[in-house]
Amino acid sequence: MPYEPSEPTEEFGVRQLLHRALSCAKPPPDTAMIGPATRAAITAVAEHHPDATAEHIVAVYDAYSLEQQDVSIAARRPPLGDPRSAQAVDFAASDTLITQLTITYPGIPRDTIAAIVEELQTTLAVSRLSRLDLLRVEYEAHQRLASGQ
Known about the structure:
Layout: H1 14-24, H2 36-47, H3 54-68, H4 73-76, H5 83-104, H6 110-124, H7 134-148
Helix pairs in contact: 1-2, 2-3, 3-5, 5-6, 5-7, 6-7
C-alpha cells in the first residue's frame, strides 16, 4: 500500500484541488472549502481524467470566480446607459452557461444546448427587465436536458 501523508485538505486552494483532479483523478474532498459549483466542476475534471479538456478547466475557474465575488448581482451589471457592455456581459454569461452545460451533459451536442439556452432566454425574457435572469435560464435548461437523457 503506497504511503499517502495526511493532508489538511481544508487548506487546499482551487489550484491544488484542480491539480489533484487533473493528475490523479481525485475529486475534491468533502472538507474542501469551496462552493458547490466549483466542487462540481472539479469533480467533472476528475471524472474525465485523463481526457479533461480546456473547457473543463475554464469551467472550474469560472465557477470559482463567480462564487468568490461578494458583490450582489445588481452591482455586477454595467450601467444601463451602455447597451454594448450589457450585451457583451450577457454573451459572456450565456457562453459560460453553455460551456458548463456541455460539460455536465457530454452526450448532448453543444449546438443543441446552445439552441435550448437561446430559446429559454427568449421565452423567459421579461420586457420590463433589461437583463437576462440566467439563474432561471440555467434551471430550466437543466430540467430540459435532464429529462432528455
